[in-house]
């Protein structure tokens, strides 16, 4: 097997198995985001818990789910069995060194993944490489804002000084309390995910992954354009988790 990013694998080995989201909300989101009614082959790149693969398998004849974490692959397999989806296969691979053949997918779904690799450009080039002419990539990335350096400083601090189980819990509880307080002040629960991921888990997923890169929408559209895709931003800071930090680009490979 090609080399893999062990640090990210270890982080997600312990993350998704204990935080599997609700399928219905994942389905709702993907169904309204993906405009293709039916495709032959779909790739769920960085499949995590596997629920996106389950949903994609309702629109595709065949789905391949790939993740760097072996525990995620196992969890994703269990979800496919749980929801009786028989047209999905899962494999453990690092998307930076993806072995799948060129131009082999009609639809590539990569949400909240590429920017977590040490070299996200390698991931993005592989996503483009495996897309068939006329095929579509849905790419969800972290948006670069004036807050990004502050988030990065906090993440480095948390990973360096607050990384034992008790300290990590302290950090997650602290940010959860802060979020709840903010919700009370503005009169709403601003940061709650409809798919049942707790705020503690969101904090862990935000401040503890080993690598993170933030992008502007323009640079990603330009990247696709240079590589023979027509791209547009279809969700800017909203969508699945109503997050101020994710944008989604839909890119179609020129025929
Ligand atoms: C934030 S989760 C997103 C999971 C899923 N795509 C979703 O939308 O809920 C990121 C996932 O990407 C996987 N991942 C991160 N870097 C990866 C890489 N280089 N190759 C394959 N998977 C990777 C992680 O193991 C994790 O399961």
Structural overview:
The protein is an alpha/beta fold. It folds into two domains: 6-144 and 212-253, Rossmann fold (3-Layer(aba) Sandwich); 148-207, no CATH class. Helices cover 42% and strands 22% of the residues. It contains nine helices and seven strands, in the order H-H-E-H-E-H-E-E-H-E-H-H-H-H-E-E. Helix 7 (165-186) packs across helix 8 (199-207). The protein starts with 5 loop residues before the first helix and ends with a strand. S-adenosylmethionine binds at residues 5, 8, 12, 16, 46, 48, 52, 66-69, 72, 94-96, 111-113, 116-117, 123, 205.
Query: Share of helix among residues?
Result: 40-55%
Structural Rg: 18 Å
As an assembly, this protein is: single chain
Percent of residues in β-strands = 15-25%
SS summary, helix count: 9
Largest sheet: 7 strands, mixed
**Bound heterogens, unique:** S-adenosylmethionine
What is the SS-derived class?
alpha/beta
Number of strands: 7
């Amino acid at each position: 097997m090609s080399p893999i990013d062990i640090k990210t694998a270890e982080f997600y080995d312990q993350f998704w198995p204990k935080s599997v989201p609700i399928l219905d909300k994942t389905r709702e989101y993907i169904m309204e985001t993906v405009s293709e009614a039916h495709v032959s082959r779909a790739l769920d790149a960085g499949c995590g818990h596997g629920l996106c693969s389950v949903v994609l398998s309702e629109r595709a004849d065949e789905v391949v789910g790939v993740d760097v974490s072996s525990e995620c692959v196992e969890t994703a397999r269990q979800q496919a069995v749980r929801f009786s989806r028989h047209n999905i296969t899962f494999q453990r691979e690092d998307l930076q060194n993806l072995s799948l053949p060129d131009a082999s997918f009609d639809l590539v779904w990569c949400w909240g993944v590429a920017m977590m690799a040490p070299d996200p450009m390698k991931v993005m080039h592989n996503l483009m490489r495996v897309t068939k002419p006329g095929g579509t990539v849905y790419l969800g990335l972290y948006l670069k804002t004036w807050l990004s350096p502050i988030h990065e400083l906090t993440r480095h601090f948390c990973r360096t000084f607050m990384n034992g189980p008790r300290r990590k819990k302290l950090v997650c509880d602290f940010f959860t309390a802060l979020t709840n307080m903010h919700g009370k002040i503005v009169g709403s629960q601003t940061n709650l995910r409809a798919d049942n991921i707790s705020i503690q888990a969101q904090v862990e997923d935000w401040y503890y992954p080993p690598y993170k890169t933030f992008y502007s929408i323009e640079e990603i559209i330009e990247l696709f354009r240079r590589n023979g895709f027509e791209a547009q931003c279809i969700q800017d800071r909203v969508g699945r988790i109503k997050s101020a930090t994710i944008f989604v680009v839909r890119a179609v490979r020129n025929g």
